[in-house]
Design goal:
It is a single chain. With 424 residues, the protein is α/β, with parallel strands linked by helices. The protein is 40% helix and 17% strand. Helix 4 packs across helix 11, helix 5 packs parallel to helix 6 and helix 12 packs parallel to helix 16. The longest helix has 21 residues. The radius of gyration is 22 Å and the shape is globular.
Length: 424
């Protein structure tokens, strides 16, 4: 897939690149609105991975034979592609993982061992995914660190005044999601990074929900760590990325031990490989790395500015349509959101996700009945139970948009909700 293949094409045209969008569910055309959980994959991603399995497959970094060297070249080309996508300064700062969850667990384990002592503090936020909560609880129980939590305002934003009050001389790390997977809130991570750095702390950004929708620039954010997942940015499952500042990664111990991450091994002593391989024990999913690189090519060719504009239009349209439904309760949007821009790390914003409930209809009932109409949405707590308690609900229905969704699909969603509501 070249730049010219996707550049300037609208969502209706791009849909042809995603074969699954043409299928039917229960006799209805599929309306896929669960992109916050995983995005669909364009044919070019699947083709690139198939080609590597059929024509290049060999273990990387270990062989002198041609196929191994070719597979190694493809993986390192993928690493360079990721570096450009997140705008890291060096490829040594790009670590391949299995996803955002593993990336955060890696930081929690290795950063804690290197930098934290009993009584040191890690600041989380009330809108974090469980993957950015539970690993830190494990470290708290193991090492005696303290966890502090930044609250969420009534309109679904981080209370930055409260955050300022949480930061102090024992703060070592601030962990924040770039975009809430429940509310769609786009957080001003560059501003938060300045607040963290001002008190001598580092910052970890969970960019799982940001990478498909917004330009990622770790240098503009001035973040110390950033995590993302391939499957949420039109790439394969089982592959993710950890960006980390070189000087921090150098001081952190390995997360896992085994092959590839070593320099020399004896029964008396082991030395470790250089970055980033120190954190990549065992055989990596090098084919998925190629798929991720191709997905990032696809997103870049479609144009992040065009993606932002399209998805913002869908979000506004969905809010307008859904608010016409009797008994509708939408979470996180006190007013219509301003469009995110390339300056989003500084200014924040909102979009691409709408979470709602209708009257007394249970979210699971709504999601199940919408599914029978061919409409795929998410239901439940979305791995954000603390945020659900803040909102005063058990769970919500979530519609989340991607570059291939259309206004007509929003109309189908609204009609489906109204039909379900009439049943109750």
């Amino acid at each position: 897939m070249t730049h010219s293949d996707t550049c300037g094409r609208g969502p209706a045209s791009l849909r042809a690149d995603f074969p699954i969008l043409a299928r039917s569910v229960y006799g209805h055309p599929l309306v896929y609105l669960d992109n916050g959980a995983t995005t669909q994959k364009p044919r070019c991603v699947v083709d690139a991975m198939t080609d590597e399995y059929l024509n290049v497959n060999a273990n990387v970094h270990r062989g002198v034979h041609y196929l191994s060297q070719q597979a190694t070249d493809l993986m390192e080309q993928a690493r360079e592609r990721v570096r450009r996508f997140v705008r890291a300064a060096k490829v040594e700062e790009v670590v391949f993982t299995r996803g955002t969850t593993e990336s955060i667990n890696l930081v929690a384990s290795s950063y804690t061992q290197a930098f934290l002592r009993e009584g040191d503090e890690v600041v989380l936020t009330q809108m974090e995914h469980h993957s950015n909560i539970v690993p830190w609880q494990l470290m708290r129980d193991r090492y005696g660190i303290r966890l502090r939590v930044c609250p969420v305002t009534d309109d679904g934003r981080l209370d930055l005044d409260a955050l300022a009050g949480l930061l102090g001389e024992r703060t070592r790390l601030v962990c924040v999601t770039a975009v809430s997977n429940v509310l769609g809130t786009v957080n001003p991570v560059a501003r938060i990074a300045r607040m963290a750095h001002a008190c001598g702390a580092h910052i970890l950004v969970d960019a799982a929900q940001a990478a498909p929708h917004l330009p990622i620039d770790v240098q503009a954010m001035d973040c110390d760590f950033l995590a993302l997942s391939g499957h949420k940015v039109y790439g394969p499952t089982g592959i993710g990325v950890l960006y980390g500042r070189e000087e921090l990664l150098e001081q952190m111990p390995p997360y896992m031990g085994g092959g590839e991450m070593i320099g020399t091994v004896s029964f008396e002593h082991t030395t470790f490989n250089r970055l980033p391989y120190k954190f990549e024990a065992g055989t990596p999913d090098y084919v998925a790395a190629t798929g991720l690189a191709r997905a990032m090519d696809y997103v870049e060719a479609a144009g992040m500015e065009a993606i932002m504009e399209h998805e913002h239009d869908l979000t506004l349209y969905a809010l307008q349509r859904l608010r016409q439904v009797e008994g509708m309760r939408i979470f996180g949007y006190g007013s219509l959101p301003a469009a995110p821009t390339a300056a989003w790390p500084e200014t924040g914003g909102a979009g691409s996700v709408v979470s709602f409930l209708v009257g007394g209809i249970h979210h699971l009932d709504m999601g199940t009945l919408l599914d029978r109409l061919g409409i795929a949405v998410r239901t439940g707590h979305h791995c954000a139970e603390p945020l659900m308690r803040r909102l005063g609900v058990e769970g919500t229905v979530r519609a989340s948009f991607a570059l291939y969704n259309t206004r007509s699909e929003v109309d189908t969603l609204a009609a489906g909700i109204e039909r379900v509501a009439r049943m109750f």
